[in-house]
């Protein structure tokens, strides 16, 4: 009986030590996993293709495109999506290379230059005095998952200012939507660029027409 009791005690100790070793190994593995860096998000850009050439009269005007501003919630590198009204969410594994507002400025200046309707198109800051200033606000750029397929919504407000006369020539909000081909962030990026192309074409026509007043 004494020998059996000793074996029982020894076996119990061995089992306890084995369990502690397994637990320690599990905790160690969890700690290693926690120390692993989070995967880098995929980085995306807004791009535009050249505008279709249209015969227009050229004016001796210098346009100055100011740095676009973004409305609250959209002045970020994070890519915005919505699943219900009034609530913005952000993709964890995808982001913009720069804020959409910052990327919008050069693309708009490029599109205005491609109209060949102005003596020059500049971006602020510029040493050349401007005749007309183009102020831009990014109101919205989001992927809407409340519809199927999801779609990207882009809204931009543009205001033209006569610099010398210090008056507003015109102002307008431009909206464009494009369906996403895939239900993920990359599908949203492709749709955003389609919507952006439409907006740039509309804004270019607007600026050409309204700057003549």
Task: Describe the fold and architecture.
- This protein has 213 residues and is of the alpha/beta class.
- The protein is built from 3 helices and 9 strands.
- Strands 1, 2, 3, 4, 5, 6, 7, 8 and 9 form a 9-stranded mixed sheet that branches.
- A hairpin with a 6-residue loop joins strand 4 and strand 5.
- Helix 2 packs across helix 3.
- The radius of gyration is 29 Å and the shape is elongated.
- 24% of the residues are buried.
- The N terminus is likely disordered.
SS-based class: alpha/beta
Instruction: Name the overall outline.
Output: elongated
SSE pattern: HEEEEEHEEEEH
**Strand content range:** 25-35%
Instruction: Give the termini separation.
Output: 110 Å
How many extended strands? 9
Features of the shown structure:
213 residues, alpha/beta, nine-stranded mixed sheet, 3 helices
Question: What is the element layout, followed by pairings?
Answer:
Layout: H1 2-35, E1 42-44, E2 59-65, E3 69-70, E4 78-82, E5 89-96, H2 100-114, E6 118-123, E7 132-144, E8 151-162, E9 167-179, H3 185-210
Parallel strand pairs: 1-5, 2-6, 2-7, 3-7, 4-7
Antiparallel strand pairs: 4-5, 7-8, 8-9
Summarize the structure.
The chain is an alpha/beta fold and 213 residues long.
């Amino acid at each position: 009986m004494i020998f059996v009791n000793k074996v029982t005690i020894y076996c119990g100790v061995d089992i306890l030590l084995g369990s502690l070793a397994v637990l320690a190994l599990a905790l160690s593995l969890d700690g290693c996993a926690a120390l692993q860096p989070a995967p880098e998000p995929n980085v995306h850009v807004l791009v535009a293709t050249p505008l279709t050439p249209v015969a227009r009269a050229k004016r001796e005007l210098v346009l100055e495109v100011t740095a676009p501003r973004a409305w609250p919630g959209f002045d970020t590198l994070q890519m915005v999506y919505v699943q219900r009204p009034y609530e913005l969410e952000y993709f964890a594994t995808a982001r913009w290379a720069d804020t959409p507002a910052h990327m919008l400025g050069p693309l708009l200046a490029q599109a205005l230059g491609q109209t060949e309707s102005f003596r020059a198109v500049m971006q602020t800051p510029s040493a050349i005095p401007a005749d007309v200033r183009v102020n831009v606000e990014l109101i919205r750029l989001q992927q809407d998952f409340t519809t199927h397929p999801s779609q990207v919504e882009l809204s931009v407000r543009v205001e033209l200012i006569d610099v010398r006369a210090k008056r507003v020539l015109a102002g307008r909000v431009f909206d464009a939507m494009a369906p996403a081909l895939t239900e993920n962030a990359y599908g949203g990026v492709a749709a955003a660029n389609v919507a952006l192309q439409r907006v740039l074409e509309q804004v270019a026509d607007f600026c050409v027409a309204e700057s003549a007043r």
